[in-house]
Design goal:
The structure is a homodimer.
Chain A (H helix, E strand, L loop, with lengths): L12 H19 L4 E2 L1 H8 L3 H9 L5 E2 L3 E3 H12 L5 E6 L3 H8 L1 H4 L3 E8 L8 E2 L2 E5 L3 H7 L4 E4 L3 H13 L4 E4 L12 E4 L2 H13 L13
Parallel strand pairs in A: 4-5, 4-8, 5-7, 8-9, 9-10
Antiparallel strand pairs in A: 1-3, 2-3, 6-7
Helix pairs in contact in A: 1-2, 1-4, 2-3
The structure holds a DNA duplex.
Chain lengths: ~220, ~220
Amino acid sequence: MSEEPTTRRGIPEATVARLPVYLRALSSLADRGVRTVSSEELATAAGVNSAKLRKDLSHLGSYGVRGVGYDVDYLLYQISRELGLTQDWPVAIVGIGNLGHALAGYGGFATRGFRVVALFDADPSVVGQTVAGLRVRSVDELVDFAREVPIAIGVVATPAGPAQSVCDQLVAAGVRSVLNFAPCVLQVPDGVDVRKVDLSTELQILAFHEQRKAPADPSEAVNE
Amino acid sequence: MSEEPTTRRGIPEATVARLPVYLRALSSLADRGVRTVSSEELATAAGVNSAKLRKDLSHLGSYGVRGVGYDVDYLLYQISRELGLTQDWPVAIVGIGNLGHALAGYGGFATRGFRVVALFDADPSVVGQTVAGLRVRSVDELVDFAREVPIAIGVVATPAGPAQSVCDQLVAAGVRSVLNFAPCVLQVPDGVDVRKVDLSTELQILAFHEQRKAPADPSEAVNE
DNA sequence: GTGACTTTGTGCGTACGTTCACAAGTGCTT
DNA sequence: AAGCACTTGTGAACGTACGCACAAAGTCAC
């Protein structure tokens, strides 16, 4: 009756990054009325290797039944809980341009676990508008606002220029998780997480690989 | 399954993913008139370890000068060339909803290397509209269109439902690089690359880490 | 209860990624 | 021309990730 060295504390980052994919695949299965799923089926739906899926899930606990598979609803709940989606996370979006609009209206937020509680912008002509049912506030009110309504996750949807300043204000408001859509690197103090979503980066990575596919000839480049 | 971790000329995938970041940092430096940069400075700007930066760059060649650093313009060109940005890649966006609108109007495409050549949507009430200077075409015209105007990169900005079907049509049209914004896994044949940009996934990863922070003292503000 | 069958959970070899630390190379100063 | 200050490029060590293959553990039929 001693310590399990692996689980509980340390879930590998690579695993965490895949949990949302499993979650989505499971939701889809649940919607179709599937009650039980094998690692092979779920792995195919998630686009990964089944051994990898099993190892990933084993980090959460032993939620499968040998010879049977995984109970879809139970696994859904366990992954949701592990990801912290059994509670609602208040989200604030800063920068209500084209992208900010799209984000504010995006149903993806509404999916379990996240709630957009405030919109901010620096442009006086945008402040005061109503977007997706929320009044756009001045970014200057950010820190004050956060005193009354805590913000768990800040979304930076501004151009690159003001992004660092906006990020600093989010941090000053107590935000420790930032999702950055601006095309720049954000500097944050220890304890603050930043994740970047970047169209240009993704395109450039695709371009790199595309460039190497030059021979559009199936008979070529089979070996080595 | 040719899921090779490194590319043919031996550039690790992890390195490729960081090249766009270096590129951006270098552009910023160039705009400010900086002519030469050390690995330490560039690494700080890019938010990475300097040894990692040097090793990454060493995969492209020996473009630095010991005792001096890297010539900003020269390195900019070399990375651009490696990423395939010295040519223009024709991009098609499918799904002109909120997100598609934002993408079509996003300057990030125009900057360098990418050109949006066509917009597609399935909704008859959207088809025919002009968005960002382009007429929205019916998605049914996709394959025919691609016969006249080649498409290198297809952007899927539809809801999850039609995403796989849209992707199949892109592949049928000869597209071998897909950027997927739809919240689902796309199945593609060998030789086709898919990269996923997913708001929900990123939020969920942030939520996971957020949940593990918080020694339960939300009132305490990080200050000074 | 027994045995055939199914599927999980994981030990292990391999490959990949990151960081340290330093030799090797470059420019500047004297 | 020699020494010094600086920075790159990389060998080596360590850590992480992946996927195979299989024992363990369960179900089901009878």
